[in-house]
Amino acid sequence: YRLFPGEPKWKKNTLTYRISKYTSSMSPAEVDKAVEMALQAWGSAVPLSFIRVNSGEADIMISFETGDHGDSYPFDGPRGTLAHAFAPGEGLGGDTHFDNAEKWTMGMNGFNLFTVAAHEFGHALGLAHSTDPSALMYPTYKYQHPYGFHLPKDDVKGIQALYGPRKTL
Amino acid sequence: APSVSAAAPRTTQNNYHLAQAYLDKYYTSKAGPQVGEMGAPGGRALIKKIKELQAFFGLRITGKLDRPTMDMIKRPRCGVPDVAN
């Protein structure tokens, strides 16, 4: 695993998130579910909890964007770059954007939103890309089955290096 | 047969530009190298970045845009750079 330079992390254990813009290729309920499961994948390994808000600013602002969307990292249409996220911090920090030109899905007939969201939330929590091909934080897309998903070892080591392990009761 | 040979150089050119854009996006820190350092296409800086990419992905380190490297460049991926930014 790799951390970002300066090892930015959230200094609190409860983070808010808000889905401010949806995609037309999935129902809002499906997007909500995929995002919730993706955050839970990380929450199961470290003492972080995520609260959804429906208005105003959240720590992790989530949206589906197209082309140049004002953050100096324009999307490139179908395939290529699928999404990106910003390391923990104020303002853009933690924010996560998905390329709305992709076909997003809960299954395998497109790009699985859970798979990409879980990867991007790794960045939003402070992980950089991993050179371990079995890691969720490996840069290229590899379908992950949302149900029964467990974080690969490399990603658990990385996130626990930042936030410590979740204490099991 | 001539049409085949005409197609091959175009593909190589397309691959070159695709690789250049990829390396600029994912293997250049925003603080970025000075433009001069980028130099002419195929310069040392480019070969260095190709090697960085090959090292990151565990590919054989050739400094060339060989088939495994181009296959990796064409895979859908996350937009966060692979090098410290």
Characterize the structure shown.
The complex is a heterodimer of chains A (169) and B (85). By secondary structure, chain A is an alpha/beta fold. Chain A is built from 3 helices and 7 strands; from the N terminus they run βαββββββαα. In chain A, strand 1, helix 1 (28-43) and strand 2 (49-52) form a beta-alpha-beta unit. The radius of gyration of chain A is 15 Å and the shape is globular. The two termini of chain A are 27 Å apart. By secondary structure, chain B is mostly helical. Chain B is built from 4 helices and 1 strand. Classes of the chains: A alpha/beta (169), B mainly alpha (85). Strand 4 of chain A pairs parallel with strand 1 (77-78) of chain B.
Query: How large is the radius of gyration of chain B?
Result: 14 Å
Q: Which structural class best describes the helix and strand composition of chain A?
A: alpha/beta
Q: Any idea what the radius of gyration of chain A is? A: 15 Å
The dominant shape of chain A is: globular
Strand content of chain B: under 5%
Q: Which sheet architecture does the biggest sheet of chain A show?
A: 5 strands, mixed
Biggest interface found: A-B, 24 and 15 residues
Class per helix and strand makeup of chain B: mainly alpha
Terminal-residue CA separation of chain A? 27 Å
Helix content of chain B: 55-70%
Q: Find the count of extended strands of chain B (DSSP E, 2+ residues).
A: 1
Task: Give the ordered list of helices and strands of chain A.
Answer: EHEEEEEEHH
Which assembly state applies to the chains in this document? Answer: heterodimer
Low-confidence stretches of chain B: 1-5, 32-41
Secondary structure tally: strands of chain A: 7
In N-to-C order, the SSE pattern of chain B is HHHHE
